[in-house]
Amino acid sequence: MKATECIRTRRSVRTFNGEPLRADDAQKIMAFAETAGNPYGLPITWELLDAKKTGLSSPVIVGEDTYIAGKMRRMPHAEEAFGYSFEQIVLFAESIGVGTTWIAGTMDRSAFEKAVSLETGEVMPCVSPLGYPAEKMSLRENMMRKGVKADSRFPFSDLFFDGSFDKPLPAERAGQWQIALEAVRLAPSAVNKQPWRAVVCGDRVHFYETRGKVRVNVDWDIQRIDIGIAMCHFALAAEECHIPVSFLLEDPGLAVPANTVYIATCAVG
Ligand SMILES: Cc1cc2nc3c(=O)[nH]c(=O)nc-3n(C[C@H](O)[C@H](O)[C@H](O)COP(=O)(O)O)c2cc1C
Questions:
Q1: How does pLDDT run across 127-160, given as a tens digit for each residue?
Q2: Which residue's CA lies nearest to atom 28 of ligand 1?
Q3: CA-101 nearest atom, ligand 1
Q4: What is 156-268's CATH number, 1.10.10.60, 3.40.109.30, 3.10.50.40, 3.90.226.10?
Q5: Is the dihedral of CA 2, 189, 204, 232 positive or negative?
Q6: pTM above 0.90, yes or no
Q7: Nearest alpha carbon to residue 188 among 6, 54, 33, 1
Q8: Pocket of ligand 1 (CB under 6 A)
């Protein structure tokens, strides 16, 4: 399955069919996780957690028996790096028929942190259940999806700009970046806030975070994880379009709207 296809078909799965994660799928996911790097080169340790043995659960998830969690040193760019790496695992799981849901808030955080033996100076930003989607979503899942309008995304030209923030970029004028930016648009985000913005300047695309009020009881910026996910989608889709890209930290100094901060630049080459 191509990355852009997984990006289009993936959705958060909160109702699983109760079948335990098959050993070969678990093995494939963990082998893939070892390869899921990020532009910051930050190492992340991945762990599979047996929900029953450890007593772990999430109030919004039913029918799961396994979670995956990642932990890393707390350091600058940890959030974007985590989003970038974890989303590759999420898309890989999708490609082999395993459902996931990014979870940062709706869990007993201290129980999960204990299960991964989180140490001082480390963070475990998110976890995800792993399993096989049930045929029918639970009532709660349906209601949650409606509550955050999970099936919709902002229009292309609300998110992406041509050279400066005062010039919206419609999809049909995005040229070589159209498919990669559309992959960003479809990305999952906490409470479906879609905080990514991008300004296209020729062969460079500058990514920004528009800061909203997503409250999770942690002392790091959850929306930076969303931007890491967006960067991952962008790079995977660009690669599929045979555009080699890499990320740099070179703020172009563009005028930005209120509450908007520069995150990273993606450049051809
Ligand atoms: C960083 C992050 C944290 C999230 N945390 C939660 C969570 O705690 N509980 C939950 O039910 N969904 C959570 N989600 C899932 C989002 O609500 C979901 O991705 C969004 O509504 C879009 O729906 P979709 O994933 O089905 O496309 C999170 C997503 C992201 C990216």
A1: 999 999 999 999 999 999 999 999 999 999 999 9
A2: 190
A3: 15
A4: 3.40.109.30
A5: negative
A6: yes
A7: 6
A8: 11-12, 60, 101-106, 126, 144, 148, 150, 188-192, 222, 225-226, 229
